[in-house]
Design brief:
This protein is an alpha+beta fold and about 150 residues long. The chain has 2 helices and 7 strands. It comes from Vreelandella nanhaiensis. It holds the Pfam family DUF1249.
């Protein structure tokens, strides 16, 4: 039985990127280039780690943000890391770098050498959305000094 090729769901991708833009704006607020904010992820009894948001670069129509997570397993492995571009003119945020892998296509043949899923780009943006939503719902924030 022949398998049909994956067709990129642009409506879902754009919806996810638009929602992530609003989530990130709520989290970064009026931060400027070089500033970092940490959000403690915890429940009533336990601290699960920190979500760090760092403004890497700002321009009139775009902002570049690094989103990383640190936690109890840092001694064994690095936590997830994403670089996200916010496009202010279209009010969208897109993952452009994940774990130092860059430039994701809208679709991939499967299997492939990097073992990306056919909808890898959509999945990365959904993951960012879940991550940010969790930070908004369960995080406690405090500001850190500039990184310069």
């Amino acid at each position: 039985m022949a398998r049909t090729a994956y067709v990129t769901d642009l409506k879902s991708l754009q919806g996810e990127c638009s929602a992530n833009y609003l989530r990130l704006l709520r989290l970064v607020g009026d931060m400027e280039s070089g500033q970092r904010r940490e959000i403690a992820l915890s429940s009533e009894e336990r601290h699960f780690g920190d979500l760090q948001l760092t403004i890497i670069e700002q321009a009139p129509y775009t902002t570049m943000v690094d989103v990383t997570q640190s936690g109890p397993l840092d001694a064994i492995m690095d936590g997830p890391r994403m670089r996200v571009h916010l496009y202010h003119d279209v009010r969208m945020a897109e993952v452009t770098d994940f774990q130092r892998e860059r430039h994701f296509s809208g679709r991939y043949r499967y299997p492939n050498a990097r073992m990306y899923q056919p909808d890898e780009k959509l999945q990365l943006n959904r993951f960012l959305g879940e991550w940010l939503a969790h930070g908004l719902a369960h995080g406690h924030t405090y500001d850190l000094p500039e990184m310069r």
